[in-house]
Amino acid sequence: MTIHGLHVAIDGHPAAPPMLLIHGSGATGSMWAPVVPSLATKYRVITIDLPGCGRSTPASTYAVAQQADRTAAVLDELGIRNLTVVGHSSGGYIATALVERRADLVGELVLVSTGPSHAALLPEPAIIRMLSSPPFGPLVWAIRTDSMIRRGLAATAAGTITVPDSAVADMRRTSYRAFRAILASYVDYIAERTVPQRLIDTGKPLLVIFGDSDPRWDPASAHQYEAVPGATLEYLRGVGHMAMLEDPDALARLILDRAR
User: Fold this and answer.
1) Band of residue 134 on the pLDDT scale cut at 50, 70, 90
2) For the stretch 93-103, what's the b/e string if a residue is b when 16 or more beta carbons lie within 10 angstroms of its beta carbon?
3) What's residue 137's pLDDT?
4) Residue 70 Cα distances to 44, 74, 135, 211, 243, angstroms
5) 227 is in which domain, residue-wise?
6) Which of 48, 155, 167, 231 is deepest in the core (most CB within 10 A)?
């Protein structure tokens, strides 16, 4: 379904506690497919395509605050409050902004492979640089194949992954212009203040999950979140940046162990 221009999918029993899954940059809600069945045993799971991504409509601005506001509008339309919000990678920035701007919507927060600050960013793999950065990015983006998309995702994993066909198809819908604008907005967001700094005074329960072999963000940087009162940090052994594709069962278990 589409709500306020955002593509939305809902799984699980309507009476179950609600959970929102937010994807990272360049991805779509369908990237969560391997973990949704497990999470839906205890939650009413909502996945979205963020503005300009996958099957959602483009936006006039991709500033993190405005992306969070559009996400909040979807939750308001669905009549949902006090939900668990799970953000993967830069999707964690939208989740954090949702806490900042609409704390009434969020019961607890789970950040998966969300880089806490610029200092934690590791050098980009060559294929990601080729797909995303000028001067060749626009041309390569226009002619990219399904295989190239899969290789780009695999470059951020620690081992072999299987990417859902639906995720690849949805990723092909995202324009290069939107992708670059989204990336720029995330850079601005963590340049202004780090994620732990933003969460210190929110009072929301926080679970941080990191792969101990993440090639995108320094795994040791996850300890920056220990500055947030009551935060819990968990590492997934042998996992890189794409936990939902690398070890979906382990990721789901960590989240379900926090089930209310």
Assistant:
1) confident
2) bbbbbbbbbbe
3) 75
4) 20, 7, 31, 29, 26
5) 2-256
6) 48
163: CATH: 3.40.50.1820
CB atoms within 10 A of CB 185: 21
- Quote the tokens at residue 116: 């806490």
Strand order across the beta sheet in which 106-112 lies: 2-3, 6-11, 44-48, 18-22, 83-88, 106-112, 206-211, 232-236
Cis peptide leading into residue 135 (ω within 30°): yes
The whole-model pTM stands at: 0.96
Q: Which tokens sit at 16?
A: 């179950």
| C-alpha 119, offset from chain centre | 19
Q: Tokens standing for 205?
A: 């329960």
The beta strand positions in the chain, using DSSP E, are 2-3, 6-11, 18-22, 44-48, 83-88, 106-112, 206-211, 232-236
Q: Which residues pair with 209 in a beta bridge?
A: 112, 234
- A 10 A CB-CB count for 63 gives 18
Measured CA to CA, the distance from residue 119 to residue 10 in angstroms comes to 36
- Non-local CB neighbours of 202 within 8 Å, separated by 6+ positions: 99, 100, 103
| Total domain count, the chain | 1
For the stretch 157-213, pLDDT in tens is 998 999 999 999 999 999 999 999 999 999 999 999 999 999 999 999 999 999 999
pLDDT at 233 over 60: yes
Phi-psi domain of 79 (left: phi exceeds 0; alpha: psi -120 through 50; beta: other) = left
